[in-house]
Amino acid sequence: MLSRLALRNAQKLPAVASSTQALATEAPTFSRPVRAEKGGAVRMGFIPDEWFTFFYPKTGVTGPYTFGVGLTTYLVSKEIYVLEHEYYTGLSIAIMLIYATKKFGPVLASYTDKWNAEYLDELNGARNDEIKTMEDAIAAEKDAQWRAEGQTLLMEAKRQNIAMQLEAAYRERMAKVFSEVKKRLDYQAQVQVVERRIGQKHMADWIISNVLKSITPEQEKATLQQCLVDLQGMAAKN
After folding, report:
1. pLDDT digits (tens, 9 = 90+) for 217-227
2. Whole-prediction pTM
3. Residue 168 domain flag
């Protein structure tokens, strides 16, 4: 039977290897191991249930018990296992262990479960504190990112404010340049007007002075006499 079991496991090895290769090619997944709260199923208080179910495909439900009774009978009848005083001592110890297990097992189990629960609560508390710390750090990082975005907006507003100030200073200087240029142009226009007036006055004075210089006293006297004659003639007509 053991050879058949070994042969069956050997036949399953390629499939296991192929499944292992398939899992290796897939993306790694890390599942958190969970500790079993209770042990596996047993029969008669200490024999694993797998030892019984192993016989079911070949011998049926009664196979394990038949195998156990037959093996025990064979060992005792052939004196491979001798029922000496150590056997009865072991049987007595087994009975005491079973009694102690039945009597003190639940109390000890409740105590260990309580201690285990407290230990798990302590571990989970530390884990939850660490998670809370990480969550607080994430929240602080998000708040810092939000504040950084606010700083970006503030810098943009300051940049626009500086641009407006530069534009206002530029326009103020342009207005000042315009005013100064206008003042200089107005000054040049007034200078030209004054120069023209001075030139005209000088020209008129020069002409008058030259005309007066060209008139002799006789011409002046004759002209004066002619003016008096003209006035007398105009007075006679009136």
Report:
1. 777 778 778 88
2. 0.35
3. yes
